[in-house]
Amino acid sequence: MVNTLRAAAISQRFGSRVVLDAVDLEVPPGRVIGLLGPNGAGKTTLMRILFGVLTPDAGRVEWGGRAATDGDRRSWGYMPQERGLYRDMRVIDQLTWIARLHGLDRATGERRAAVLLEQLGLADRAKDKILKLSGGMAQRVQLAAAMVHEPSLLVLDEPFSGLDPVAVGFLSDVILAHVRAGRNLLFSSHQLDLVEDLCETITLIDRGRVVLHGDLRALKAASADRYLRVDVAVDPSWVDGRLAEPVTTDASGTRLRLAPGADPGTVLDAVRANGTVRDFAVEAPSLSELFLAAAGHQAVDDEPELQGSNR
Fold it and tell me: Could you tell me which CATH class the domain 1-76+151-223+286-311 is placed in?
């Protein structure tokens, strides 16, 4: 049977707080699966349950159609949100040591570590100690540590947090290569728009409940909302409020939400009558906008995190 990771009706309480409420999740091979939602939604708690760190109050974790075992979990790869590198060890030594913990011999571990460091743009830092690396470089090493034993399932908790665009690009390339090889991949993030282009299937949770699930392109296509993006700042008085409303304006221009049935050309004509439009596009809702419609409140990056295991 194909090795699909499945979490079925997972529920978890901490005291009186319901952290997860009958959450379902499926991670088949060969697809990028995003477990998404604001800070405090329950994503990290679910990942800890997947790896057996926590035992859920209800529900079941399956691998390949049967209950996941400790042996299964030891073969998976996990990049936690809380990084766990030994700062005084050299990069290559640390990765080789982790490979040996997973049963690889030294030569194979060193070879695998070298390949990953090349892929992640860190080949020239292999003999540096972790403490000499920038935060983004150390995060790439953390990813290499999760992948050095070539796991079939790779689970990444907030892998892009705090990274610059170059580091995000390196990590995205490695993630996509893992999936193209027919392996399983699940990653969590609260940075919805940052990961939008990477996701294929999403499970979006809020306050411990699934509020949206499915193929991202299909979800966007099914949404009744449509937007017009123009490269000028739009004064709301330029546009008939019965046809559209500006939702964001920044240095790149304005994004307007079209009313149901509104003709984008009519709205565009109203904008062009008051300013020069050099670029425009009719767009589906963003991932953040899908969340807002499904959950009924804005997903924001600075939403307070729950403390400890209550996340």
Answer: alpha beta
